[in-house]
Write a structure and sequence with these properties.
single chain; alpha/beta; TIM Barrel; 8-stranded parallel beta barrel; two-stranded antiparallel ribbon; 12 helices; 10 strands; globular
């Protein structure tokens, strides 16, 4: 690993724990100005205050989210996009380059691949291209990989393990996948992937405790943290939510201990 990539990764992963709390806020392209990220700068401010390690933004939101004050936070620029209006919304296309992200001050970039989707081969081709360019520039790459083909269950352990391994095989430095639902099955996902695995948050959960329980189970299984969006930026108190997650991810605390912060 180049020293440049190592330095940048240390802005995305906690140096002491090797784990991370990433808050993606790229939802505006797919779903519009949803609750929680209407004011991007305020959302970034809150999760940074809570102790998040990084946020994920599309290139046009980097300026909108820049604060110029407060706690520092890592920046990952997302390179892939599609909208919920598209007839094939699982087909992601590149809308930004690694070089653009570098000019924007990014510490890393991310790419989204939906395994089994109609344009899987194009997304894999883009993944390979971006991975090579990232290696040239010493830029960390977060791969968001989901099983979203016809009749696929994206939470099935076999599918998730394949997605995680795909991310490692094609040169990502961190891979984001859905949680399988229990620590035992997710531990097998981690075992088959030689790079850090973080879990996705998915749809808004019914309770904040449920979010904490899922993250706790994933960390116990060997996950290196999380990349959770709406279950953080739509929380009742974003600052406290990130602090509670940080207790679990970085300090190894229990769900009961983390819940106390929320209460």
């Amino acid at each position: 690993m180049s020293i440049g990539k190592q330095v940048r990764l240390e802005r995305l992963l906690n140096r002491n724990t090797g784990k991370t709390i990433i808050v993606p806020m790229d939802h505006g392209v797919s779903s519009g100005p949803m609750e929680g990220i209407v004011e991007v700068r305020k959302a970034v401010e809150d999760v940074a205050e809570g102790g998040a390690n990084a946020v994920v933004l599309h290139k046009g939101m980097v300026r909108a989210g820049h604060r110029g004050r407060g706690k520092d936070i890592g920046l990952i620029v997302h390179l892939s996009a599609s909208t919920d209006w598209a007839p094939t919304k699982n087909d992601k296309v590149l809308v930004c380059t690694v070089e653009e992200a570098i000019r924007l001050g990014a510490d890393g970039v991310s790419i989204h691949v939906n395994v089994g989707a109609d344009m899987e081969r194009e997304m894999l081709k883009d993944f390979g291209f971006v991975s090579r360019v990232c290696e040239d520039w010493g830029m960390p790459l977060l791969a968001m990989v989901y099983g979203r083909g016809k009749d696929m269950n994206q939470y099935e352990p076999k599918v998730v393990a394949h997605c995680a391994r795909l991310g490692a095989e094609l040169g990502a430095d961190i891979v984001k996948v859905p949680y399988t639902g229990d620590p035992e099955s997710f531990s097998r996902v981690v075992e088959g992937c030689p790079i850090p695995v973080v879990i996705a948050g998915g749809p808004k959960m019914k309770t904040e405790r449920e979010v904490l329980e899922i993250v706790h189970g994933a960390v116990q299984a060997g996950a290196k943290g999380l990349s959770v969006g709406r279950n953080i930026f739509q929380a009742r108190d974003r600052i406290r939510m990130v602090k509670a997650l940080s207790l679990i991810v970085h300090e190894g605390k229990s769900v009961e201990e983390a819940v106390k912060i929320l209460d």
